[in-house]
Inverse folding.
């Protein structure tokens, strides 16, 4: 696509995607939910460096964009679990390509 | 990969990629340079909504990450052109997947 140049329609769809996934946390949170639903603390532990405040904000944004669901269980005390939706799972190829590119980038820039 | 779950090594490479590409502008700038070198004003026109200050900052960051080059030509007055590098072009598949996902996301969330 790059070699075919940037038609405005493509630019719009990439912009849509980048707005839904903006920042460095959302994809990492989705990645952490990829192997099963998790509670807040478990996500926070897996996504190193994220503060509780930001994680809370990002989870709300992901829910609004139909990428995850938030389920409250009627236990005592109540438990809350976050799960990736099929729409969230449809980011698999994006993440795969980012993974491969990230490996190549580390090699190129950081020389390891 | 998502269905295979999130091993720490994959998380690290995705994090590397997201840090190099952070924000909503960098990929759009690279996309605008995909069909040939451009001057500052031309990029600014193509990437709608970006301010000169942010564009200038983003171009520097992209240059530091070896994704673009900045070439000064000895004309009167001097002209400056930005061009995508092969490393920048290696983001083609990431952009392609973001493009497809962006289309699906617009359909799902915005219903159009």
């Amino acid at each position: 696509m790059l070699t075919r140049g940037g038609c405005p329609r493509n630019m719009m769809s990439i912009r849509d995607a980048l707005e839904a996934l903006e920042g460095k946390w959302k994809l990492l949170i989705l990645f952490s939910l990829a192997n099963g639903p998790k509670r807040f603390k478990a996500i926070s532990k897996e996504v190193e460096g994220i503060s509780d405040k930001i994680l809370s904000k990002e989870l709300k944004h992901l829910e609004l964009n139909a990428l995850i669901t938030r389920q409250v269980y009627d236990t005592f005390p109540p438990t809350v679990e976050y799960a990736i939706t099929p729409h969230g799972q449809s980011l698999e190829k994006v993440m795969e390509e980012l993974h491969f590119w990230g490996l190549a980038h580390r090699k190129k820039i950081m020389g390891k």
Q: What stands out?
A: Residues 13 and 19 of chain A are 10 Å apart (CA to CA).
